[in-house]
Protein backbone atom coordinates (compact mmCIF):
# COMPACT_ATOMS: atom_id res chain seq x y z
CA UNK A 1 0.00 0.00 0.00
CA UNK A 2 1.34 3.43 -0.95
CA UNK A 3 1.85 5.65 2.07
CA UNK A 4 -0.06 8.54 0.54
CA UNK A 5 -3.24 6.51 0.20
CA UNK A 6 -5.59 7.10 3.08
CA UNK A 7 -7.25 3.69 2.95
CA UNK A 8 -10.56 5.47 3.57
CA UNK A 9 -13.33 3.83 1.58
CA UNK A 10 -15.08 7.12 0.87
CA UNK A 11 -12.13 8.36 -1.18
CA UNK A 12 -12.30 7.76 -4.91
CA UNK A 13 -9.05 6.65 -6.55
CA UNK A 14 -7.63 8.86 -9.29
CA UNK A 15 -4.93 7.76 -11.73
CA UNK A 16 -3.12 10.59 -13.52
CA UNK A 17 -1.57 9.98 -16.94
CA UNK A 18 1.24 12.48 -17.45
CA UNK A 19 3.01 14.58 -14.86
CA UNK A 20 3.89 17.74 -16.70
CA UNK A 21 2.79 21.20 -15.62
CA UNK A 22 -0.93 20.32 -15.55
CA UNK A 23 -0.69 16.71 -14.34
CA UNK A 24 1.61 17.59 -11.46
CA UNK A 25 -0.73 20.39 -10.35
CA UNK A 26 -3.66 17.96 -10.30
CA UNK A 27 -1.62 15.53 -8.20
CA UNK A 28 -0.57 18.28 -5.78
CA UNK A 29 -4.17 19.40 -5.31
CA UNK A 30 -5.45 15.87 -4.66
CA UNK A 31 -2.65 15.17 -2.19
CA UNK A 32 -3.21 18.46 -0.36
CA UNK A 33 -7.02 18.40 -0.38
CA UNK A 34 -7.82 14.69 -0.33
CA UNK A 35 -10.17 14.85 2.67
CA UNK A 36 -12.02 17.86 1.29
CA UNK A 37 -12.39 16.43 -2.22
CA UNK A 38 -12.89 12.81 -1.23
CA UNK A 39 -10.08 11.75 -3.58
CA UNK A 40 -6.75 9.96 -3.41
CA UNK A 41 -3.99 9.41 -5.97
CA UNK A 42 -3.79 5.81 -7.15
CA UNK A 43 -0.85 6.06 -9.58
CA UNK A 44 0.86 8.63 -11.82
CA UNK A 45 2.08 7.47 -15.24
CA UNK A 46 5.32 9.08 -16.44
CA UNK A 47 8.03 8.28 -18.96
CA UNK A 48 10.87 8.46 -16.42
CA UNK A 49 9.99 7.75 -12.77
CA UNK A 50 13.56 8.65 -11.69
CA UNK A 51 13.40 12.23 -12.92
CA UNK A 52 13.17 14.66 -9.96
CA UNK A 53 9.62 15.90 -9.39
CA UNK A 54 7.62 17.47 -6.58
CA UNK A 55 5.31 14.43 -6.70
CA UNK A 56 6.19 11.61 -4.23
CA UNK A 57 8.37 9.03 -5.96
CA UNK A 58 6.29 6.05 -4.76
CA UNK A 59 3.29 7.25 -6.76
CA UNK A 60 5.17 7.26 -10.07
CA UNK A 61 5.35 4.48 -12.61
CA UNK A 62 6.31 4.10 -16.25
CA UNK A 63 4.18 0.96 -16.59
CA UNK A 64 0.58 1.42 -17.72
CA UNK A 65 -0.24 -2.05 -16.37
CA UNK A 66 0.51 -0.80 -12.85
CA UNK A 67 -1.86 2.12 -13.39
CA UNK A 68 -4.81 -0.10 -14.28
CA UNK A 69 -3.88 -2.69 -11.65
CA UNK A 70 -4.31 0.06 -9.05
CA UNK A 71 -8.08 -0.05 -9.80
CA UNK A 72 -8.70 3.67 -10.33
CA UNK A 73 -12.22 5.04 -10.30
CA UNK A 74 -11.21 7.89 -12.61
CA UNK A 75 -8.37 8.31 -15.08
CA UNK A 76 -7.12 11.87 -15.65
CA UNK A 77 -5.37 12.10 -19.02
CA UNK A 78 -2.86 14.97 -19.19
CA UNK A 79 -0.33 13.51 -21.62
CA UNK A 80 -1.32 15.48 -24.70
CA UNK A 81 -1.12 14.45 -28.34
CA UNK A 82 -2.94 11.60 -30.04
CA UNK A 83 -0.76 8.68 -28.98
CA UNK A 84 -0.18 7.05 -26.56
CA UNK A 85 -2.95 9.10 -24.95
CA UNK A 86 -5.63 7.75 -27.29
CA UNK A 87 -4.77 4.13 -26.64
CA UNK A 88 -4.82 4.61 -22.86
CA UNK A 89 -8.10 6.54 -22.90
CA UNK A 90 -9.72 3.83 -25.02
CA UNK A 91 -8.49 1.15 -22.63
CA UNK A 92 -9.92 2.99 -19.63
CA UNK A 93 -13.30 3.51 -21.29
CA UNK A 94 -13.53 -0.13 -22.39
CA UNK A 95 -12.82 -1.14 -18.80
CA UNK A 96 -15.70 1.04 -17.60
CA UNK A 97 -13.42 3.63 -15.97
CA UNK A 98 -14.44 7.29 -16.17
CA UNK A 99 -11.97 9.49 -18.07
CA UNK A 100 -11.27 13.21 -17.61
CA UNK A 101 -9.07 14.69 -20.32
CA UNK A 102 -7.42 18.06 -20.94
CA UNK A 103 -6.19 16.89 -24.36
CA UNK A 104 -7.72 19.06 -27.08
CA UNK A 105 -5.63 17.42 -29.83
CA UNK A 106 -6.94 13.94 -29.04
CA UNK A 107 -10.53 15.13 -28.70
CA UNK A 108 -10.42 17.22 -31.87
CA UNK A 109 -9.19 14.27 -33.94
CA UNK A 110 -10.90 11.33 -32.23
CA UNK A 111 -13.70 12.92 -30.23
CA UNK A 112 -16.64 11.27 -32.02
CA UNK A 113 -15.12 7.78 -31.75
CA UNK A 114 -14.27 8.25 -28.08
CA UNK A 115 -17.76 9.52 -27.31
CA UNK A 116 -19.26 6.47 -29.02
CA UNK A 117 -17.01 4.22 -26.96
CA UNK A 118 -18.02 6.10 -23.80
CA UNK A 119 -21.69 5.63 -24.65
CA UNK A 120 -21.25 1.93 -25.33
CA UNK A 121 -19.35 1.21 -22.11
CA UNK A 122 -21.26 3.59 -19.87
CA UNK A 123 -18.00 5.15 -18.65
CA UNK A 124 -18.18 8.99 -18.66
CA UNK A 125 -15.77 11.02 -20.79
CA UNK A 126 -15.35 14.64 -19.61
CA UNK A 127 -13.15 17.31 -21.13
CA UNK A 128 -13.97 20.76 -19.71
CA UNK A 129 -10.25 21.55 -19.33
CA UNK A 130 -9.59 20.99 -23.04
CA UNK A 131 -11.24 24.29 -24.01
CA UNK A 132 -10.92 27.57 -22.14
CA UNK A 133 -9.14 26.10 -19.12
CA UNK A 134 -11.14 27.38 -16.12
CA UNK A 135 -13.90 28.94 -18.27
CA UNK A 136 -16.85 26.48 -17.99
CA UNK A 137 -17.96 26.80 -21.60
CA UNK A 138 -18.71 23.10 -22.15
CA UNK A 139 -20.81 23.10 -18.98
CA UNK A 140 -22.72 26.08 -20.36
CA UNK A 141 -23.29 24.28 -23.65
CA UNK A 142 -24.64 21.24 -21.79
CA UNK A 143 -27.13 23.52 -20.07
CA UNK A 144 -28.13 24.96 -23.47
CA UNK A 145 -29.08 21.54 -24.85
CA UNK A 146 -32.72 22.63 -25.08
CA UNK A 147 -31.80 25.75 -27.03
CA UNK A 148 -30.24 26.14 -30.47
CA UNK A 149 -26.74 27.65 -30.73
CA UNK A 150 -26.63 29.73 -33.90
CA UNK A 151 -23.01 30.86 -33.77
CA UNK A 152 -19.98 31.23 -31.57
CA UNK A 153 -16.99 33.53 -31.64
CA UNK A 154 -14.19 32.84 -29.25
CA UNK A 155 -10.70 33.66 -28.08
CA UNK A 156 -9.53 30.27 -26.84
CA UNK A 157 -5.74 30.52 -26.84
CA UNK A 158 -4.40 32.30 -23.78
CA UNK A 159 -0.84 32.34 -25.12
CA UNK A 160 -1.77 34.25 -28.27
CA UNK A 161 -4.02 36.64 -26.40
CA UNK A 162 -1.23 37.37 -23.93
CA UNK A 163 1.21 38.05 -26.76
CA UNK A 164 -1.18 40.31 -28.66
CA UNK A 165 -2.10 42.38 -25.61
CA UNK A 166 1.56 42.74 -24.63
CA UNK A 167 2.34 43.85 -28.18
CA UNK A 168 -0.40 46.47 -27.82
CA UNK A 169 1.66 47.95 -24.98
CA UNK A 170 4.73 48.25 -27.22
CA UNK A 171 6.55 44.91 -26.99
CA UNK A 172 7.72 43.09 -30.08
CA UNK A 173 6.53 39.58 -30.90
CA UNK A 174 9.75 37.89 -29.73
CA UNK A 175 9.84 39.75 -26.41
CA UNK A 176 6.16 39.05 -25.73
CA UNK A 177 6.65 35.35 -26.51
CA UNK A 178 9.65 35.14 -24.17
CA UNK A 179 7.59 36.70 -21.39
CA UNK A 180 4.77 34.22 -22.01
CA UNK A 181 7.27 31.35 -21.78
CA UNK A 182 8.79 32.74 -18.58
CA UNK A 183 5.31 32.87 -17.02
CA UNK A 184 4.55 29.30 -18.01
CA UNK A 185 1.88 30.36 -20.53
CA UNK A 186 3.73 29.11 -23.61
CA UNK A 187 5.56 25.88 -24.37
CA UNK A 188 9.22 25.78 -25.39
CA UNK A 189 7.83 25.02 -28.86
CA UNK A 190 4.96 27.50 -29.24
CA UNK A 191 4.12 26.60 -32.84
CA UNK A 192 0.74 25.02 -32.05
CA UNK A 193 -0.36 28.24 -30.37
CA UNK A 194 1.10 30.79 -32.78
CA UNK A 195 -0.06 28.92 -35.91
CA UNK A 196 -3.68 28.83 -34.73
CA UNK A 197 -3.69 25.02 -34.68
CA UNK A 198 -4.50 24.91 -30.95
CA UNK A 199 -7.48 27.23 -31.50
CA UNK A 200 -8.71 25.15 -34.44
CA UNK A 201 -8.65 21.99 -32.30
CA UNK A 202 -10.62 23.72 -29.57
CA UNK A 203 -13.11 25.05 -32.13
CA UNK A 204 -13.80 21.47 -33.22
CA UNK A 205 -14.60 20.50 -29.62
CA UNK A 206 -16.84 23.54 -29.20
CA UNK A 207 -18.64 22.85 -32.46
CA UNK A 208 -19.48 19.33 -31.37
CA UNK A 209 -20.56 20.39 -27.88
CA UNK A 210 -22.76 23.14 -29.35
CA UNK A 211 -24.43 20.71 -31.75
CA UNK A 212 -23.22 22.73 -34.74
CA UNK A 213 -20.81 20.35 -36.42
CA UNK A 214 -18.45 17.41 -36.09
CA UNK A 215 -15.32 18.98 -37.55
CA UNK A 216 -11.70 17.94 -37.67
CA UNK A 217 -8.95 20.59 -37.57
CA UNK A 218 -7.95 20.07 -41.21
CA UNK A 219 -11.48 21.18 -42.23
CA UNK A 220 -11.09 24.56 -40.48
CA UNK A 221 -9.36 27.36 -42.48
CA UNK A 222 -6.69 28.49 -40.05
CA UNK A 223 -4.21 31.34 -39.83
CA UNK A 224 -2.04 32.21 -36.87
CA UNK A 225 -0.48 35.36 -35.48
CA UNK A 226 3.10 34.78 -36.66
CA UNK A 227 2.79 37.54 -39.25
CA UNK A 228 1.31 40.17 -36.89
CA UNK A 229 3.60 43.18 -36.38
CA UNK A 230 3.33 46.35 -34.26
CA UNK A 231 2.14 48.33 -37.30
CA UNK A 232 -0.92 46.05 -37.56
CA UNK A 233 -1.82 46.73 -33.95
CA UNK A 234 -1.29 50.46 -34.35
CA UNK A 235 -3.52 50.52 -37.43
CA UNK A 236 -6.21 48.62 -35.56
CA UNK A 237 -6.01 51.10 -32.69
CA UNK A 238 -6.39 54.06 -35.07
CA UNK A 239 -9.51 52.40 -36.46
CA UNK A 240 -11.01 52.00 -32.97
CA UNK A 241 -10.40 48.26 -33.00
CA UNK A 242 -7.98 45.66 -31.69
CA UNK A 243 -6.51 42.45 -33.06
CA UNK A 244 -7.53 39.15 -31.52
CA UNK A 245 -7.04 35.55 -32.65
CA UNK A 246 -10.69 34.59 -33.13
CA UNK A 247 -12.23 31.15 -33.66
CA UNK A 248 -15.60 31.39 -35.40
CA UNK A 249 -18.35 28.94 -36.15
CA UNK A 250 -21.76 29.79 -37.59
CA UNK A 251 -24.66 27.75 -38.90
CA UNK A 252 -26.02 29.49 -41.97
CA UNK A 253 -27.26 29.08 -45.49
CA UNK A 254 -26.15 27.17 -47.48
CA UNK A 255 -23.78 25.51 -45.02
CA UNK A 256 -21.48 25.98 -42.07
CA UNK A 257 -18.89 28.74 -41.72
CA UNK A 258 -15.76 27.95 -39.71
CA UNK A 259 -12.55 29.95 -39.38
CA UNK A 260 -9.60 30.62 -37.08
CA UNK A 261 -7.41 33.68 -37.60
CA UNK A 262 -6.60 37.25 -36.59
CA UNK A 263 -9.64 39.53 -36.70
CA UNK A 264 -10.23 43.26 -36.21
CA UNK A 265 -12.57 43.49 -33.23
CA UNK A 266 -14.45 46.69 -32.27
CA UNK A 267 -13.30 48.08 -28.93
CA UNK A 268 -16.84 47.77 -27.57
CA UNK A 269 -17.05 44.04 -28.47
CA UNK A 270 -16.79 41.57 -25.54
CA UNK A 271 -13.78 39.82 -27.12
CA UNK A 272 -11.87 43.12 -27.17
CA UNK A 273 -12.09 43.27 -23.36
CA UNK A 274 -9.98 40.10 -22.97
CA UNK A 275 -6.46 40.86 -21.77
CA UNK A 276 -3.43 38.76 -20.97
CA UNK A 277 -4.14 35.03 -20.97
CA UNK A 278 -7.90 35.46 -20.67
CA UNK A 279 -10.22 33.39 -22.85
CA UNK A 280 -13.76 34.28 -23.81
CA UNK A 281 -16.60 32.69 -25.76
CA UNK A 282 -19.56 34.61 -27.18
CA UNK A 283 -22.53 32.35 -27.89
CA UNK A 284 -25.54 33.47 -29.92
CA UNK A 285 -28.55 31.31 -29.13
CA UNK A 286 -32.07 31.19 -30.53
CA UNK A 287 -33.82 31.37 -27.14
CA UNK A 288 -31.23 32.70 -24.70
CA UNK A 289 -29.83 35.40 -26.99
CA UNK A 290 -26.18 36.38 -26.52
CA UNK A 291 -24.14 34.83 -23.71
CA UNK A 292 -20.52 35.69 -22.94
CA UNK A 293 -18.18 33.63 -20.78
CA UNK A 294 -14.67 34.75 -19.86
CA UNK A 295 -11.86 33.78 -17.51
CA UNK A 296 -8.29 32.51 -17.23
CA UNK A 297 -7.46 30.48 -20.33
CA UNK A 298 -3.99 29.20 -19.55
CA UNK A 299 -1.87 28.03 -16.65
CA UNK A 300 -1.74 24.92 -14.46
CA UNK A 301 -4.05 26.11 -11.67
CA UNK A 302 -7.01 27.17 -13.87
CA UNK A 303 -6.66 23.93 -15.86
CA UNK A 304 -6.48 21.86 -12.69
CA UNK A 305 -9.65 23.62 -11.52
CA UNK A 306 -11.51 22.41 -14.60
CA UNK A 307 -10.10 18.89 -14.32
CA UNK A 308 -11.05 18.48 -10.67
CA UNK A 309 -14.51 19.83 -11.39
CA UNK A 310 -14.94 17.17 -14.06
CA UNK A 311 -13.59 14.46 -11.75
CA UNK A 312 -16.16 15.25 -9.07
CA UNK A 313 -18.93 15.55 -11.67
CA UNK A 314 -18.28 12.15 -13.25
CA UNK A 315 -18.17 10.65 -9.77
CA UNK A 316 -21.60 12.18 -9.11
CA UNK A 317 -20.36 14.14 -6.13
CA UNK A 318 -21.90 17.49 -5.28
CA UNK A 319 -20.09 20.04 -3.13
CA UNK A 320 -22.41 19.38 -0.18
CA UNK A 321 -21.55 15.67 -0.25
CA UNK A 322 -17.86 16.41 0.40
CA UNK A 323 -18.53 17.32 4.00
CA UNK A 324 -17.69 21.02 3.69
CA UNK A 325 -18.83 22.95 6.73
CA UNK A 326 -21.62 25.47 6.43
CA UNK A 327 -20.57 29.08 6.97
CA UNK A 328 -22.80 31.55 8.73
CA UNK A 329 -23.86 34.51 6.62
CA UNK A 330 -21.94 37.74 7.19
CA UNK A 331 -20.70 40.68 5.16
CA UNK A 332 -17.23 42.17 4.72
CA UNK A 333 -16.10 45.51 6.10
CA UNK A 334 -16.01 47.86 3.12
CA UNK A 335 -16.62 51.45 2.06
CA UNK A 336 -20.30 52.45 2.13
CA UNK A 337 -22.10 55.51 0.77
CA UNK A 338 -25.20 56.63 2.69
CA UNK A 339 -27.45 59.17 1.01
CA UNK A 340 -30.04 60.70 3.37
CA UNK A 341 -32.94 63.02 2.58
CA UNK A 342 -35.42 64.50 5.02
CA UNK A 343 -36.16 67.35 7.40
CA UNK A 344 -33.01 66.85 9.50
CA UNK A 345 -30.77 65.21 6.91
CA UNK A 346 -28.43 68.22 6.63
CA UNK A 347 -27.62 68.57 10.33
CA UNK A 348 -23.85 67.98 10.83
CA UNK A 349 -24.12 67.54 14.61
CA UNK A 350 -26.77 64.85 14.20
CA UNK A 351 -24.69 63.04 11.56
CA UNK A 352 -21.52 63.03 13.65
CA UNK A 353 -23.42 62.04 16.79
CA UNK A 354 -24.89 58.98 15.05
CA UNK A 355 -21.40 58.01 13.92
CA UNK A 356 -19.95 58.32 17.44
CA UNK A 357 -22.71 56.10 18.81
CA UNK A 358 -21.54 53.35 16.46
CA UNK A 359 -17.80 54.01 16.89
CA UNK A 360 -17.47 54.91 13.19
CA UNK A 361 -15.26 57.53 11.58
CA UNK A 362 -16.58 59.48 8.58
CA UNK A 363 -14.68 59.01 5.32
CA UNK A 364 -16.40 62.12 3.98
CA UNK A 365 -19.58 64.12 4.48
CA UNK A 366 -21.30 66.24 1.85
CA UNK A 367 -24.19 68.47 2.91
CA UNK A 368 -26.70 69.95 0.49
CA UNK A 369 -29.95 71.88 0.87
CA UNK A 370 -31.98 68.69 0.28
CA UNK A 371 -29.95 66.17 2.27
CA UNK A 372 -26.50 64.72 2.78
CA UNK A 373 -24.17 62.00 1.59
CA UNK A 374 -21.98 60.27 4.13
CA UNK A 375 -19.05 57.92 3.54
CA UNK A 376 -18.19 55.29 6.16
CA UNK A 377 -16.29 52.02 6.35
CA UNK A 378 -18.42 49.30 7.93
CA UNK A 379 -20.32 46.09 7.39
CA UNK A 380 -23.51 46.25 5.31
CA UNK A 381 -25.84 45.73 8.27
CA UNK A 382 -24.26 48.51 10.29
CA UNK A 383 -24.45 50.91 7.35
CA UNK A 384 -28.12 50.10 6.77
CA UNK A 385 -28.92 50.61 10.47
CA UNK A 386 -27.11 53.94 10.39
CA UNK A 387 -29.05 54.99 7.30
CA UNK A 388 -32.34 54.11 8.99
CA UNK A 389 -31.38 56.06 12.12
CA UNK A 390 -30.41 59.13 10.11
CA UNK A 391 -33.61 59.04 8.05
CA UNK A 392 -36.00 59.19 11.00
CA UNK A 393 -38.67 61.87 11.23
CA UNK A 394 -40.00 61.48 7.72
CA UNK A 395 -36.73 61.09 5.82
CA UNK A 396 -35.36 58.38 3.55
CA UNK A 397 -31.94 56.81 3.00
CA UNK A 398 -30.13 54.79 0.35
CA UNK A 399 -27.11 52.70 1.32
CA UNK A 400 -24.77 51.54 -1.45
CA UNK A 401 -21.57 49.56 -0.82
CA UNK A 402 -18.58 50.57 -2.94
CA UNK A 403 -17.41 47.49 -4.84
CA UNK A 404 -13.69 47.00 -5.45
Task: Describe the overall structure.
There is one protein chain. This protein is of the alpha/beta class and 404 residues long. Helices cover 35% and strands 24% of the residues. It has helices at residues 21-32, 34-37, 64-69, 85-94, 104-121, 137-143, 158-168, 173-182, 191-194, 197-209, 230-238, 300-314, 348-357, 380-390; strands at residues 12-17, 39-45, 60-61, 74-77, 98-101, 125-126, 149-155, 241-251, 256-266, 278-285, 289-296, 334-341, 362-367, 371-378, 396-401. Helix 4 packs parallel to helix 5 (104-121). Residues 1-9 have low confidence and may be disordered.
Gist of the model:
With 404 residues, the protein is an alpha/beta fold. It contains 14 helices and 15 strands.
Percent of sequence in beta strands: 15-25%
Largest sheet: 6 strands, parallel
Shape: globular
Main structural class: alpha/beta
Strand neighbour order, sheet with most strands: 3-2-1-4-5-6
Percentage of residues assigned to helices: 25-40%
Distance between the termini: 49 Å
Question: pLDDT average, as an integer?
Answer: 89
State the total count of DSSP E strands: 15
The low-pLDDT segments are 1-9
Index terms:
single chain; alpha/beta; five-stranded antiparallel β-sheet; 14 helices; disordered N terminus
Topology:
Blueprint (H helix, E strand, L loop, with lengths): L11 E6 L3 H12 L1 H4 L1 E7 L14 E2 L2 H6 L4 E4 L7 H10 L3 E4 L2 H18 L3 E2 L10 H7 L5 E7 L2 H11 L4 H10 L8 H4 L2 H13 L20 H9 L2 E11 L4 E11 L11 E8 L3 E8 L3 H15 L19 E8 L6 H10 L4 E6 L3 E8 L1 H11 L5 E6 L3
Parallel strand pairs: 1-2, 1-4, 2-3, 4-5, 5-6
Antiparallel strand pairs: 7-8, 7-10, 8-9, 10-11, 12-14, 12-15, 13-14
